[in-house]
Structure formats: structure tokens, C-alpha cells
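FORM 7B: Structural annotation worksheet

SECTION A. Query
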Amino acid sequence: MGPTATGATVQERELLGAAREGDEHAFRRLIERHQGQLHAHCYRMLGSTHDAEDALQDALLRAWRGLSGLEKQASLRPWLYRIATNACLDVIAGRHKRVLPIDYGPSAEAGHLPGHALPEALWVEPYPDEKLGVGDGRAAPEAHFEQREALELAFIAALQHLPPRQRAVLILREVLGFSAREVGDVLDTTVTSVNSALQRARQAVDERLPEQSQQATLRSLGDEGIRDLVERFTDAFEGGDVEAIVALLAEDVTFSMPPYPTWHRGRDAVADSWLMPERRDPGLRYVPTRANGQLALGTYSLDPERGVYLPIALDVLTLRGTSISEVFAFRTTGLLRRFGLPAELPD
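SECTION B. Predicted structure
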């Protein structure tokens, strides 16, 4: 799975030697091909892009300072993941787990107002997978989940309910394809303990995941089907056509709006929620993007005084067939910058 000490790692060993002598440029070149995947690993552990960035920077600083502890013939990849995993475990030990509104409290009745926003540190955040370059496919033959599948919101939310070390075991084994022995080395435990933790983690996560991943659903729709769904969504919302919006929703659809804890379940409740525009020309515009390997749209609202559209939310959609089964309207507008979306749109 990781590079061996021969052949392809000759350049790696040369860079490692230079980095040990204090060459920061060599160190950056040494870790650059791992950095995107390390960031995704920290995100899976923590459920937050902000926390993941902090943990990754801490991990890279630890790696720079600890180069002397890496044996000359050792593989770099497991060593980096050991440092990053332990940096994440330190973060988890100092804060509450992050959740989605559906895991925070019961659903609200139709027409219920969202109430007060709660601290953003409570919520799972969306992940800009395209911008950070997470590839498709499995990381190694031993991995169980596809790379994008293991970034879907349902999977990330399920991970946050696992005890931290179980979470680490599941990600390292099932997503990244490390062997049980390597995971034991990362967590300073035995292969028996790793296998036991993995069995418990698999069972807990499987209970929370839908039957079909978003990756499988998107493949079944195909490019044309995806374009059609996005067009119908944007046309319905930009035109303020509530009937057309409701027709896109599954019967048991859920709608939530972090950082507000209120969420709704069922087509009737969602039809009478804040998701729906109040008039035929609501002054909305949408810019398609991708988050967590899922369809997403940057939502913009017209500012009549300035004559431009300003960001108000990032909508992440979960699909079941051709219907929308979940809408997550993340109302933290600063998130849009992480997705490379414009700060405003012209009228």
C-alpha cells in the first residue's frame, strides 16, 4: 500500500535526507503529494474543514520537528498518518463531537421558525472535495470505501458518533487501506485490539448509512440526469415555484439549516419551512458546485440597494433516485470562499 524502501522511494529518501539537514523546501516536496489526502483524513476524523486545517498544520509541524524519529528505511506514508491521527485525537479530546441537526434533537412541526443559531463549532461542516483534490476510487486494495464515498455527509456524520479510537481504526483500515498491523503501530495497540475495534465500528456505522451511496446514485443518473436535476432545482427556486420545488422532494425528505438546530421531516413540513421562497420572484440565484462528493449549490440573494446577489447559504443535496431526500442549507456564508465560489453575482 505505502511506498517501499526501494525503487520509487529513491527520490523520497534523498528529499528526506535533505529535510533532516534543515532543508524546508525538501520537506515541502516530501509531503506535498500526501497533503490533500492528509487533510481529508483530518476532516473525516473531525467533521470540520476548519478543525482539519488546524490539525493538519499541527501535524506537519510535528513531522518537521520529528524527522529524526523516522527510520531511514521506513515508509513515509504510515508515519505521516500516525502523526496526523494523533493530532486529531488531541483535538477531539478537547471539544464536543460535531453533529448534524438531525442528530441534535427531534424534528420540528410544519411552520416552526428556526429560532436562534447555535455555535458553529457544534455542526459538521461541508467539504470542498473538488478544490482540495480528493481523487476517485479506493486508496489501496484493502480499502472498503471509495474516496468520495467516504466523504459523503452521511458517512462523516456517522463517524462522529464513534469513540475516537474506533473512528481512527475504521478510517485507517476501511478508507485508507492500512493493514491491521500498521493501524496497531499508529495507535500503539495490538492487531487483536484493532480487529475488535473495527468490527464494532463497522456495525455502528452500517446502522447509520443509507442502502446506496451518493456516488452510486450519481453514476446511475449519469451526467445528463444530473444536469437535468440541477436545472429543475435552480429554475424552481429562482422562479419561486413552490409546486415545482415540492415535486423534486422525496416523501420523507429532511431539511436542515446549520447553524440553526431546527429541522423538518416530510414533504408537507418542508413545504411549510424556510426552504420555500415566499413569492414568485424571490431574487435568488444558484451556482452549482460539489461538496462531500454530492451535488451542492451556492445560494445568492439579491441586495436591491447594491444591485448584486450576495451569498446566503451553501445547499448540499442528498439524492434517492431522481428525488431529493435531504437538503442541508449551510448558512455560514464564509464557507463559500472555500469552494471557490464568487463573493457576489451581478444582477
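SECTION C. Observations
The two ends are 51 Å apart (CA to CA). The chain has 14 helices and seven strands.

SECTION D. Sign-off
Analyst initials: ____
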